[in-house]
């Protein structure tokens, strides 16, 4: 039998004292539970606990709580709020600790089923030459840039091995519709495989809509395929951002949206905005365009601050401060539409608000910890290479293959999803343990992005004070809290957004 032998009986060898030594005997009316805090403005601060419950309080409250200067009678309301929301506890271990544990598990339940989104880059061909295009697209006629049927088969085979019972097969390009026969092949094959593997599949085609035809849409209807398109705002912005011979990209997008709605229904087509440097001066015009076109929501989304997209520095590289200013103005315009009686959401705010105002998890890849790449999304490139995320593919187009996880010709499921590289990426994508994030009040609402850190700061872990992902999220989350704190009408409106009213 093994036993621990004390080689120096009688000698005090312990470096640290027992926990009880540190217990404050004077102010012991309550115990602290883990929570973090941050100043919201010169008057107010926000406290956030481990499961994302928050309290906006007067400046100095966190200090008072931590120094145990809170009085259960004099500070009756605050004291009880703090108890009810798991910031402090009357007992060393709260009586309702199991409730806290269940809510924590619920928040992280997006991890239960592993990878859902499988992106198939079905072709690199495109008839647009957008200056911010993430990939170095090739012209229409080069068939060698289509994904081979062999690779489509292998991608489907891997998708069927996902533990997730509900997977999404998303076709991207280039312009995906230029390889519509390959899409059809993939859909037929995946549907058959799903029967054997008992999986539900959602199909999505990402397209600029220029090549769409009635026949294609009828096929989409028959197979419940969703359409995701790009719309950068009114014609003068969209056509400048999205170069195309004939300068008719905007006209074709609008025509395509109309036709898609007629055949598939209003809710089967969504549009995504990319904010170029030009867009920054026109937040109101861009919001108005989406509103005018009867979209129920829009996503004020910045350009990825790296890769091919930023080769054209003048058009695409801009300071995060400028984007934040644009975002705030755009959001304000959207809020005003709502206050005037319309229903129209901003998607990024809605995702964050769902994390802030509800106990539920959110499936949005960019705001997860562990990060959504691999855990939630995987990319099969047209040439068979497999990447951790769409941004990882973008880097590879710049000859940086740091995030290539394998190849459809040679790699097994385990070699892709459980490789040393996959473990390294995941480790760098856990904001609970990242310097800066680990004690940030917004940790539960935010995420981590190892690809962005690697490409903008030289390593997967990054440095928060100079990190654009952090600067953007910190500013937007603070702004949402300030809006809710300043106007009860906006708090009510935000609650409606997350509940889909
Ligand atoms: S990225 Fe920034 S805002 Fe997000 S959790 Fe980390 S420190 Fe906080």
From TrEMBL:
Gene3D superfamilies: Aldolase class I. Its cofactor is [4Fe-4S] cluster. Keywords: Iron, Iron-sulfur, Metal-binding, S-adenosyl-L-methionine. GO terms for molecular function: iron-sulfur cluster binding; metal ion binding; oxidoreductase activity. Residues 121-263 form the Radical SAM core domain. It comes from the Bacteria. NCBIfam families: rSAM_paired_1. This is His-Xaa-Ser system radical SAM maturase HxsB. It comes from Candidatus Pedobacter colombiensis. The gene is hxsB.
